[in-house]
Specification:
It is a single chain. By secondary structure, this protein is mainly α. The chain has a three-stranded antiparallel sheet with strand order 1-3-2. A hairpin with a 6-residue loop joins strand 2 and strand 3. Helix 3 crosses helix 5, helix 4 packs across helix 5 and helix 6 runs antiparallel to helix 7.
Length: about 190
């Protein structure tokens, strides 16, 4: 039986298409259209690539994000994305370096699992604060080196002022997000 036929048979028999698609209660989400999920993963990954992320890293990240548990093994990622373990490994290495996924050991096993966290975007934006601080220091040195009154110095200073503005606004934005997130989570918990 081909892999495509096996997936089709799994769907008809009510088995999850991919490991990890089982809800915590042990029930599969029958409303989920596996093909639509796969298309979402590829579409979102393509948008991440347009924003500058490496292609395979974008696909792995989108696949983790779209899984119910937010946790998959390398084998599960390879199966879902139809890629080699080496491709998954390289993508995970990059995603781990930029703190977009974390690695954890599967209980009772030597296999690693990879997790995307629900606060992923918040954490990524909060880390930008550190990057902006470093850029500001370098830009200040650049303005001083070039001279504030030179055309390049004025252009560099405007960039510096932009990043200072962005960093100031980012702190307030992240605080408002935390409050909004907590409200959404409380409403979700109340609805359960």
């Amino acid at each position: 039986m081909s892999e495509q036929q096996q997936r089709s048979a799994d769907r008809t028999e009510g088995a999850p298409r991919h490991p990890g698609d089982v809800r915590p209660e042990g029930k599969r989400d029958d409303k989920r259209d596996d093909e639509a999920v796969s298309q979402f993963v590829e579409r979102f990954a393509a948008q991440l690539v347009e924003a500058g992320m490496q292609r395979m890293s974008a696909r792995v990240f989108a696949c983790l994000l779209a899984s119910d548990s937010g946790v998959l093994t390398s084998a599960e990622l390879g199966e879902r994305l139809q890629v080699s373990p080496a491709a998954v490994s390289g993508a995970i290495r990059y995603l781990s370096q930029v703190d977009m996924v974390s690695r954890e050991r599967e209980p009772g096993s030597r296999r690693d699992r990879y997790r995307v966290h629900s606060d992923q975007w918040y954490e990524a934006m909060a880390r930008r604060d550190n990057i902006l601080t470093r850029w500001e220091g370098t830009l200040r040195d650049g303005v001083e080196s070039l001279g504030e009154d030179s055309p390049a110095g004025r252009r560099m200073n405007e960039t510096l002022v932009f990043f200072e503005f962005l960093q100031k606004e980012l702190a307030g934005l992240l605080q408002r997000w935390r409050e909004h997130r907590d409200q959404i989570r409380a409403e979700y918990d109340d609805a359960r």
